[in-house]
């Protein structure tokens, strides 16, 4: 009841494929990333477990075929829908963002540790926030479940509720 659609997302890298975090730390970032996204509304999915397993297997086969075709030379995904290509980013802009990110995380992490060590108020704040997150995970099943419930509550449609009562 918490699912309105299944999104099938295929990701491909035409130039370099980062295998581990080490590649990213060494600056071996992909120059391009291609996404193929297909949304399947929940009412179009099979209802029986066997049919759903067959449906999933077929999606995986399509995904494998799509990736095979991508890496065999096409270097793009065939699509029938609408594509959104973000504006090109200059190498300078990417370099500046990398440097700022490294600077931020290099300063932020030790600063937070220092604040936690020096100030009991900050220490208690972090302890309380950690306890709240652990409790909401254990009690409600995660923040995404709470967000989904809030979304449904705020976007409920009165005419659907009237049909259910009949």
From TrEMBL:
The keyword Zinc-finger does not apply. The keyword Acyltransferase applies. One of its GO terms (molecular function) is acyltransferase activity. Residues 23-95 form the Acyltransferase C-terminal domain. It comes from the Eukaryota. Belongs to the 1-acyl-sn-glycerol-3-phosphate acyltransferase family. This is Acyltransferase C-terminal domain-containing protein.
């Amino acid at each position: 009841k918490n699912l309105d659609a299944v999104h099938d997302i295929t990701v491909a890298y035409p130039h370099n494929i980062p295998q581990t975090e080490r590649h990213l730390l060494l600056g071996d970032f992909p120059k391009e990333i291609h996404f193929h996204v297909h949304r399947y509304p929940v009412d179009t999915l099979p209802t029986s477990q066997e049919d759903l397993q067959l449906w999933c297997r077929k999606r995986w086969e399509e995904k494998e075929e799509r990736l095979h075709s991508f890496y065999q030379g096409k270097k793009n995904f065939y699509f029938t829908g609408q594509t959104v290509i973000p504006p090109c980013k200059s190498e300078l802009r990417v370099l500046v963002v990398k440097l700022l990110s490294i600077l931020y995380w290099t300063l932020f992490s030790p600063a937070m540790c220092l604040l936690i060590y020096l100030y009991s108020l900050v220490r208690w704040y972090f302890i309380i926030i950690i306890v709240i997150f652990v409790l909401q995970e254990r009690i409600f099943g995660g923040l995404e479940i709470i967000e989904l419930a809030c979304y449904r509550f705020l976007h409920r449609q009165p005419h659907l509720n009237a049909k259910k009562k009949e």
